[in-house]
Write a structure and sequence with these properties.
This protein has 207 residues and is mostly helical. It contains ten helices and no strands.
Amino acid sequence: MTTSTAQFSTKDKILGAAEELFATHGFTGTSLRQVTSRADVNIAAVNYHFGSKENLVNEVFRRRMDQMSAQRLAQLERALAEQPGEIEPIIAAFVEPALDMASGRAGSGAFVRVIARAYVEKNDALRKFLSEQYGHVPREFAGALAACLPGLGKAELYGRLDFLAGALTYAMADFGLIKRPPGTTEHAHRTRIAGELIRFAAAGFRA
């Protein structure tokens, strides 16, 4: 194993352990000692790769959010080019990459619970990081939707985008009344949920 491979493996182990622990115990309820114990590394490894617990929290988000944000923006660009003026493809570009990530591929299932923690825990540093790193993504979607809905005020538009984000987080957690029926694949279930959410959101934006 090369040095670079070993370093990546150690870093990834730390991120995976932190993600699981943050999902279960929250950010304030998880200590670096718990992370090092779960990842089977020493504290020096955490300090080397991340420098602080705050940076570790940020990197847990960056590991998932970078890819999801890139997928959202690429799908949005295609939607605007191929179906200009249509609301549903814009909403689909916001919804589908998130639900795809939530399906648990690449071990991302715990991250959905980490997102929920970010909603309920007061962590100003994390919120500042997320706003600075990813705030441009909802702004891109708001601009695209505004072009389709010229009669909708900015406050209403951003409010409805917030409602969509909240409903999407709930759907990602698979916490509601609509459970995957026996014999239905995860992909088919997520596709159906995405379709329902897109139609629901489109009606809300047009109201």
